[in-house]
Amino acid sequence: MNRVYIKTYGCQMNERDSEAVAAMLRGRGYRIVDDENACDIMLLNTCSVRDAAEQKALGKAGYVSARKKRQPDFVIGILGCMAQNRGAAILDTLPDVDLVIGTQKFHQVPDYLDNLRAAREAGVPIGSSIVDIAEEAGSQNTIRDHLIDTADAGAGPDGEGPPPAPQVSAFVSIQQGCNMDCHFCIVPKTRGDERSRPMEAIVAECRSLASKGVREITLLGQIVTSYGRRDYAHTGGVSPFVQLLEKVHEIEGIERIRFTSPHPRGFKADLVEAYARLPKLCEYVHLPMQSGSDRILRAMNRPYSRERYRQIVEALRAAQPDMYFSTDIIVGYPGETEADFEQTRELFEACNYDMAYIFKYSIRSGTVAAELADQVPEAEKERRNQVLLDILRRNSGRRTASLIGTTQEVLVDGPDKTGRRFTGRTRGNRVCIFDADPRLIGQLVPLRIERASVSTLYGSLVLAGVDATAAEGASAATPLGAARSPHVSAA
Ligand code: SF4
């Protein structure tokens, strides 16, 4: 009755929340399992950004409820954004759900599961569900446990299962919630007001991760560029977020820093300059545009213009010529005309993205945009979607082709899915596959790019005078380590 399977929907914040819940549960004696058919407890950590994501999780919960007939003690929990958004109403359609736990209560999951187990062992009738979606002061400080901290015992505290692979990259939650009130977005409702963790706690967590072998940190939050704006002063024109980047940059052992999700409003001179002066800050920026039309940006309540957005991209490319960009775009926002879309298309083409998340607008009840009348027909949304996808394919493909024949700095993550080769990422966040040796996991190595598919680069390690593909000798590779160049070296 202690095997837990956690299924995560949605964004990296959700992945991080799930990991923290898993770590807390392991610490409490639960086993985290990969096989959903071999669990006693299934937790669905949900997403509310689009209706389709909610329907998926509801469908899954309904489907697994049938298991209660043959496994009466089976526990189903719905966590996160949809739990926060729908609350106890979930039980109207899914009465077999045992737990409905909101976004500020992840840390309570172990207690609630302990209580459920104790009640069932004591013969308390099944059917009493727990719903907790209350706000909790300080909840932003509770997402801090990592599986890496509970990994010593193998797959579970009982020591079963193979030892986990060394963890090279980690997400660190720095703030929760958002006060921006974009008119299409449900996040302020599901995640609440902006709350930042203390800088010292974040730095201590990063330092601890570095001591356990983590080399790459991704700082996470709903709007990271607003980090600490109510808690810390700007000093010398440097925002609290950039101060945090500087502190993480100082940590020995941390070789790469990324962050997500920022807001264009946060890209003032201090952050742009950080890319030129902090070599550990990877030259990959996720810069949500949403629309290239000033009229639609105003309708969305996004406080920047297309011109300002273009200036930010240009400033970042000037600070870091090798910059990689990704973005979020919504096509078919209510009232978006062909002329508005043309503005988006033009800016999207000009920004030359390496990656983009393009969404067809979907109504989210509880948002301002849901009340707007002038909806764009589905077929037209799909057409606009395809126009942008074609541009993305072309631009991203061109960038990929330009990497063939170059040598890229790659952080070796571990074995790939086949277990026969190794995988890692470039500073521009491109996935690479190559032959290596397990001793190189966690090292920065030079990789000669030989070919590419749509999403993956393939190459050979650049070794010091030995056959690059000889696995036994692969440890002779020259790790870039602290002495590395911060940039990609062209051939
Ligand atoms: S800034 Fe991002 S998270 Fe905040 S309301 Fe806007 S889209 Fe949502």
Give the termini separation. 56 Å
Which assembly state applies to the chains in this document? single chain
Overall strand count: 19
The small-molecule ligands in this entry are: iron/sulfur cluster
- Cα shape: globular
Which range best describes the helical content: under 10%, 10-25%, 25-40%, 40-55%, 55-70% or over 70%? 25-40%
Structural account:
The structure is a single chain. By secondary structure, this protein is of the alpha/beta class. Helix content is 31%, strand content 19%. The chain is built from 13 helices and 19 strands. The protein has helices at residues 12-27, 51-65, 81-86, 90-93, 109-121, 187-191, 199-211, 240-249, 269-277, 294-300, 306-319, 338-351, 378-403; strands spanning 3-8, 31-32, 41-46, 75-80, 99-101, 130-132, 169-173, 175-176, 195-196, 216-220, 256-260, 284-286, 324-331, 355-360, 407-415, 422-426, 431-434, 444-452, 456-461. The protein has a six-stranded parallel β-sheet, sandwiched between helices. Strands 15-16-17-19-18 form a five-stranded mixed beta barrel. Helix 9 (269-277) packs parallel to helix 11 and helix 12 runs parallel beside helix 13. The longest helix has 26 residues, at 378-403. The protein starts with a strand and ends in a 30-residue tail after the last strand. Iron/sulfur cluster is lined by residues 178, 180-182, 185, 187-188, 222-223, 263.
Summary keywords:
binds iron/sulfur cluster, 491 residues, 13 helices, five-stranded mixed beta barrel, disordered C terminus, alpha/beta
